[in-house]
Amino acid sequence: MLDVLEGPTETQFEFITFSAGNQSFCLEITQIREIRRWTPVTKLPHTPEDVLGVMNLRGAVIPIFDLSARFGLGKTVDNERNVVIVAAAGGTTVGLLVESVSEILSVNKSSIQETPDIKSEAARQAILGVISVGESMVRVVNLDAVLDTDGGMVA
Amino acid sequence: MSRNAIRDTFFEECEELLEALVEGLSAMEEDAGNMDVVNAVFRAVHSIKGGAGAFALGRLVSFAHTFETVMDKVRSQELMVDEALMRLFHRSGDQLADLVEAARDERDPNAEAEATILRELEAYLGEEEQGGDEDFSFDALSLDFGTSADSEQSPEYPETPPSALRQFDIRFKPSRALYANGHEPLLLFDALAELGTLTVQADLSFLPDFDAFDPNDAVLAWQLQLETAEPETVLHEIFEFVESLCELDMSVTEESDTPDFDMETVTETAVMKPPPATLVKSAKVASVMPGAGSDGPPSPRTAAASKEEPRGPRPTLRVDLERVDRLINTVGELIINQAMISQRIEELELPAVAHLTNELEAYKLLARDIQEGVMAIRAQPAKPLFQRMSRIVREASEATGKKARLVTVGDSTEVDKTVIERLADPLTHMVRNAVDHGLEKPEKRTEAGKDTIGTIRLSASHRSGSVFIEIADDGAGLNRARILEKAIEKGLVVPEAELSEAEIDNLLFLPGFSTASEVSNLSGRGVGMDVVKNAVAALGGRVSITSSPGAGTTFTIVLPLTLAVMDGFVISVADQTMVIPIASIIETIRPNRRDLHSIGTKGFVISVRGAYVPIVDVARNLGLAPGAQDPGNGVLLLVSTESQGLTALRVEAIHDQRQVVIKSLESNYGAIPGVSAATILGDGKIALILDPQELVKLQPAAPYFAAVTSPRMELRHA
């Protein structure tokens, strides 16, 4: 569990950056409930590849998605550093398996840029915007799109 | 509290009042002369009217008003309750319920039915009382509690002329609760003063010494004398909301020489004759209300009656259901946690000296106690559910021209709230069926030597950890020949099938089966018993039928006590631990190779006492294994399914039988075909709870034709 940090000022947003499928992503800190080490999950039948199964989070049954696979970046390779980010939005709680968590990013709203015009509609929906950090680009994950279990995310 | 919250409270209260109303009406049917019952009904209607007035629900108010006015005539014994009036009251009660519901949902109620009932109600009223929507002046009708007992009084005494002044002596001692509830005696006195000449005398005799004085205590009492032309009812109405919160004695002396109809009262009056008034409030005698009814001389019993008034129901607490559910969830956690701790400690293999086992056992018991206690919060008596059925019986018998009465047994049996809610529809259907199909027409009943009025018996009971609900009619019983004929006609069974009586009875539960040869406007709604069965099954229960010709049919619904836990077999399927509800399993079979027969290349059937039962490989249907496993090694669970009858589910092994806490998968993910929910095992891992009904459907093509490869399910949502 992360310590609660000082609330961001009006224009400041805090993100937790992580990597999935060798790409750098981030989620707004308010959407994240906790970060856990990977533990084996209970598989669900008849589910797509990116649904790893369900996990017991203090009595609640939460689904665990492989974020990399969900973004169509291939299955996450087993690794010691793999963690599950427990995120919640709109009453739904899910776990997202990512390769590793990097840091907390504090940025002004103005430094979040619009997603460049890319061809994939699905990818555009899944990414709210991008933040450039030094040399690299961090993608802001649209949690709602990830949680939307109805729509196939990406092929 | 916001206005909406108050409004919600009003409708919650309305529900309770309507319940009391229905209950009262049923009691009236037994004994219309019982004034306590009549009063209870009156109060219920009156309270609904009062509340509705506060929310400006005009239609509700005016309907309740008319209803109440007629009720009041019964109360004053101006109207005798006969069968027709009783029926009208029932219908009025139903209509009132409809109006409340309509007001709650903010939609327009059925105006036609309302108008019909209103007209009929008004027919019982004199000219004056009609059409007075805003006119709440039913007050003038008197309430005479005594007449039923003191029968010598009411017939003999002519109506007291409305203008006759009478003197009421009222002793009023508020309790602490009266003040706590925000009532103000002065306002009551003001209201009394408006009725006539009021003399108020404070009685300070209860004042303690200054040292012992508790400013919060209610120590004052008052002696009031009121000279008024109003009947006693009006006075009682003023005290209506405080009667249970104070000591109230009311006695009356006629202005003229009163006959000594009650020595006691007179003596009392004399003794307690107050000293000259210290506080005098007077007002003009209120003008005589129109349509004053019979002012039978109020009997001294009135005072006694108000004392005998039950103190009201036991105090209850309204709690947001969500809070209860959260608590239940947490307690479920506690149980799991306890199981985990036990398991861990066992693994430690501590020396016996630690005495840990005793403590652990105590912990386990405590946890179970807490769980049971919390579950009990959700439990509710079946009464409201059963009461709703009385309306169904009434409507159904009216629609079919049959006569039926509903007898309920064990309506205090407590059942989980969700069960009650979800049982309403199936039960409605079954009760309707019982009247429509179960009971015979009155003529036929007479021929058979039965009472022309059929009886529908609805009973609830707890037996061995389950809730039993029975719907029994005393009709003709199932016409098995007709059922079989129909089933053959519909292609549900082959003509040459030899079926046992029970098997024939169970044909009723097959989808697409409806026996009524003539589609009545009642039951022919395309809802069959299969829907009932599914609804009950969804609650983890089952339905069965017994019937004997000429004596009637009984449907029995067996439900688990709670929806939060379930008895299940812990099984393994493709190396995963899963749980299957025990309720769904008929028997478990360790197959003998001799009984296994293959059909196609990979399909198997097993012969169970001569019948060939298809084998469904659970792992394969769940998509966890590529093809069917050898059914010879493994365990078969015999289940009865709606889609394909008896089916044997093949799993690898059964490990344990235990109670599991049910966790929804849908709240965070969504439905998964073949899986009804999940649970958390002692090791903290999640196990899926299988749904046999859906599981076998996963491969709709006959499972024993192996050419079909494992189904490609692309759906994530069933």
From TrEMBL, chain A:
GO biological process: chemotaxis; signal transduction
Any one of the GO CC terms: cytosol
CheW-like domain: residues covered: 12-152
Listed CDD domains: CheW
UniProt cross-references to InterPro entries, sorted A to Z: CheW, CheW-like_dom_sf, CheW-lke_dom
PROSITE patterns: CHEW
Top-level taxon in the UniProt lineage: Bacteria
Pfam families to which the protein is assigned, alphabetical: CheW
PANTHER family the UniProt entry points to: CHEMOTAXIS PROTEIN CHEW, CHEMOTAXIS SENSOR HISTIDINE KINASE-RELATED
Protein name stated in the entry: Purine-binding chemotaxis protein CheW
Automatic annotation (TrEMBL), chain B:
Catalysed reactions, semicolon-separated: ATP + protein L-histidine = ADP + protein N-phospho-L-histidine
GO cellular component: cytoplasm
Location of region: Disordered: 287-316
Class in the EC hierarchy, top level: transferase
Family annotation (CDD domains): CheA_reg, HATPase_CheA-like, HPT
Domain of life, source organism: Bacteria
Pfam families, sorted: CheW (PF01584), H-kinase_dim (PF02895), HATPase_c (PF02518), Hpt (PF01627)
Phosphohistidine found at: 46
Record's function text: Involved in the transmission of sensory signals from the chemoreceptors to the flagellar motors. CheA is autophosphorylated; it can transfer its phosphate group to either CheB or CheY.
Annotated protein name in UniProt: Chemotaxis protein CheA
